[in-house]
Design goal:
Layout lengths: L1 H9 L9 H34 L2 E2 L4 E2 L4 E3 L3 E4 L4 E2 L4 E4 L8 E4 L4 E2 L4 E4 L2 E4 L4 E2 L4 E3 L8 H5 L12 E3 L4 E2 L4 E2 L4 E2 L4 E2 L4 E2 L7 E4 L4 E5 L9
Parallel strand pairs: 1-4, 2-5, 3-6, 4-7, 5-8, 6-9, 7-10, 8-11, 9-12, 10-13, 11-14, 12-15, 13-16, 14-17, 15-18, 17-19
Antiparallel strand pairs: 19-20
């Protein structure tokens, strides 16, 4: 009986050939309707709610889905920020100062990116943060197993701000760890694990990330 049901579920309906064109038109119409409804949802619901959650929002914000934000912290967005797909933001308010996420003008954040902070993450202007990039300014848990069992929080030395300069490109799935500074125009390869600071105009890749190329710096006129 299960095999018969499985065959029925996976068997295509034998539609006549003359129905092919109307169904193609219906397929296209379906996605146009879905896109319009999603646009209305973003305009009337998602964007206003997220703007209300942020402390500062510049002009021209583009957002596709409601970011998932947990904890207490400040969010500052520059102008023309584009958040593609789902963004995960986790604040850990464990120290006297409130953690803060700052994203500069014209920066793109890809789908599935995750920012986890106890102190702060600063992303410069015109950066490209690809899909599934993780940036975290803290260890998340104490190193000692006994302390983890007791549910203790991290110490102050286990958190340090992450600072990303202007025009930085971070590839898909890269991980940026606590205390790292990435200089202007640097490139981080896909799935790289960055544990140390990266100079300007550098290309790094690997786990742990290492310098693979030094780009020619821009002159003053190009800047």
């Amino acid at each position: 009986m299960k095999q018969i049901l499985r065959k029925l579920l996976h068997s295509g309906v034998p539609w006549p050939r003359y129905m092919r064109r109307p169904f193609r038109l219906l397929f296209s119409f379906h996605w146009r309707v879905v896109a319009f409804l999603e646009w209305m949802l973003k305009l009337a619901y998602i964007e206003p709610l997220f703007r209300a959650r942020c402390d500062v929002v510049g002009q021209g914000l583009r957002i596709e889905r409601m970011p998932f934000v947990t904890g207490k912290g400040r969010i500052t967005l520059g102008s023309n920020v584009y958040i593609s797909g789902l963004l995960n933001v986790g604040f850990h308010h464990r120290f006297p100062e409130e953690p803060e996420l700052c994203i500069g003008d014209g920066t793109f954040i890809g789908h599935g990116a995750g920012f986890n902070m106890a102190r702060g993450i600063r992303i410069g202007n015109h950066c490209l943060i690809a899909s599934f990039v993780t940036i975290m300014d803290n260890d998340g848990h104490p190193i000692e197993a006994e302390r983890r069992r007791r549910g203790e929080k991290i110490d102050e030395h286990q958190a340090a701000c992450v600072i990303i300069g202007d025009d930085v490109w971070i590839g898909t799935g890269a991980i940026i760890l606590k205390g790292v500074s990435i200089g202007d125009r640097a490139i981080v390869g896909a799935r790289a694990v960055v544990t140390k600071s990266v100079p300007s105009d550098a290309v790094v890749a690997g786990n742990p990330a290492r310098l693979v190329k030094q780009l020619q710096p821009l002159n003053e006129e190009e800047k």
